[in-house]
Amino acid sequence: MITLKQALLLGESDLKNLKEEIIKNAKNSNLNAYIFNNSNTLDISQDNGIPIAIKDNINVKNWEVTCASKILKGYISPYNASIIDRMHEANLCGFGRVNMDEFAMGSTTESSSYGITKNPRDISRVPGGSSGGSAAAVAGGLAIAALGSDTGGSIRQPTAYCGCVGLKPTYGSVSRYGLIAYSSSLDQIGPITQNVEDCALLFDIIKGYDKRDSTSSTYDQKPTHPHLNPSKKLKIAVLKDWVKNASIEIQNTYEQNIKTLQSLGHTIIEKTMLDTKHHVATYYILSTAEASSNLARFDGVRYGFRAESTNLKDLYIKTRSQGFGQEVQRRILLGSFVLSSKYYDAYYLKALKARAMIKQQYEEILKDCDLIFSPVTPKTAPKFGASATPLDMYLSDIYTIGVNLAALPALSIPTGKDSNNLPIGMQFIGRAFDEQSLLDCAYGLERELNLVF
User: Fold this and answer.
1) What is the residue extent of each domain of the chain?
2) Nearest partner of 362 among 409, 425, 426, 394, judged by Cα
3) pLDDT (0 to 100) of residue 283
4) What is the average per-residue pLDDT within 257-274?
5) Mean predicted confidence (pLDDT) in 24-39
6) Could you read off the pLDDT of 293-305 as tens digits, one per residue?
7) Radius of gyration of the chain (CA)
8) CB 286 within 8 A of CB 404
9) Cα 170 from chain centre
10) What does the H/E/C string look like for the chain?
11) Which of 237, 258, 281, 330 has the highest local Cβ count within 10 Å?
């Protein structure tokens, strides 16, 4: 698949041929990355433009948007998300919905009502989640680039599993208007691409202030792609105490990457961070609390799936019981529990205090370091069904969720392979609105490693 940078140079005829190729390949693929509409075709947001795959929780006018859930099947979006309008202005277009974990709740795509998406590096393994369809489409040569959303690692984890590049931008840097919310204080839309340069290009297109989004920042964000500098020398914090939770192969790759970064002229500084078990507990209390509120509107009255019922109470109960999958129901129940009057102080308020402490820890490290370098996941992509319990799945997010709690940017890139030739991903974490340093450092490391899968 050609890169986004190359696609920007194509004429109308070549773009038409490219789109036809994507449709053909998507239909012949066994990855189940794309969601086909009732006519067995891909949704397209406009006739012209460079095709970009869109996660199924981002509104595109006249497309069905379902968050991979039965409860929203048949719902047609009446408007574009702000980032779709920005893409159109830059001659990009939405081209096909891609699969995801239901309402972005999961790390494998196994909770999708459309069935699992397979990892293009090994189809017996998960592609990660919740943006598993986006990462699989890009890594599998079915998309030039894609948009995903990251609540606790949902861009970075699947790109690490599939061997592509994913950016979770600073909270507020990209408009959330038109994103169907999971956890409003954590969700952030970001690009998934084949390489770092494409990531910078797509990020520059979608970022910026949006008056329709109350969480959108007015911070003056400069373009990143024209200023990419792979030779920039930075101070990079490493968290060697964190890596003890990872597999031996990821630990070894981490050490090798640190040596490579040193050879490129970066200064490496060892730091310590709060135990990740506090990150996991804080994240799942806050995210489920917000989810229980955000998903209350899906009740069978206004839009989407409606169960057969004889009264209003039964309508609510049957619609939500039949429309939501098990993982979504589990998180709604947990969120309702921690917000209940009896447990609000014991859980929710404590989690808010812990979040402030986690944010402060990141900021302390980044006072004398430009970036933090850490693994994305404790293991490479597991086989389907390997998570024996929901807790196993939650613990796969131990390295990613702190970034969302602290509202910081982070960029995942492939930096090695394990003994099964599966991608190993690492992430750079930066100061708020300093995506430039993330992209510069990752660009230099990417060029030095020159990995091919």
Assistant:
1) 4-240+254-269+367-449, 276-356
2) 409
3) 95
4) 96
5) 95
6) 999 999 988 888 9
7) 21
8) no
9) 13
10) CCCHHHHCCCCHHHHHHHHHHHHHHHHHCCCCCEECCCCCCCCECCCCCEEEEEECCECCCCCECCCCCHHHCCCECCCCCHHHHHHHHCCEEEEEEECCCHHHCCCCCCCCCCCCCCECCECCECCCCCCHHHHHHHHCCCCCEEEEEECCCCCHHHHHHHCCEEEECCCCCECCCCECCCCCCCCEEEEEECCHHHHHHHHHHHECCCCCCCCCCCCCCCCCHHHCCCCCCCEEEECCCHHHHCCHHHHHHHHHHHHHHHHCCCEEEECCCCCHHHHHHHHHHHHHHHHHHHHHHCCCCCCCCCCCCCCHHHHHHHHHHHHCCHHHHHHHHHHHHHHCCCCHHHHHHHHHHHHHHHHHHHHHHCCCCCEEEEECCCCCCCECCCCCCHHHHHHCCCCCHHHHHCCCCEEEEEEEECCCCCEEEEEEEECCCCHHHHHHHHHHHHHHHCCCC
11) 237
Q: Which of 154, 217, 374, 437 is catalytic?
A: 154
Choosing from 77, 82, 112, 130, the catalytic residue is 130
Mean pLDDT, the chain, integer:
95
What is the C-alpha separation between 150 and 156, in angstroms, rounded? 8
CATH architecture of 4-240+254-269+367-449: Alpha-Beta Complex (3.90)
The reported pTM is 0.96
Q: How far is the C-alpha of 332 from the C-alpha of 69, rounded, in Å? A: 14
Does 154 participate in catalysis according to the annotation? Answer: yes
How far apart, in whole angstroms, are the C-alpha atoms of residue 322 and residue 113?
12
pLDDT at 388: 64
Residue 130 falls in the annotated catalytic set: yes
CB 131 within 8 A of CB 148: yes
Tell me the pLDDT tens digit for each residue of 383-438: 998 876 777 777 788 999 999 999 999 999 999 999 999 999 999 999 999 999 99
Could you confirm whether 231 is annotated as catalytic? no
The share of the chain scoring above pLDDT 90, in percent, equals 90
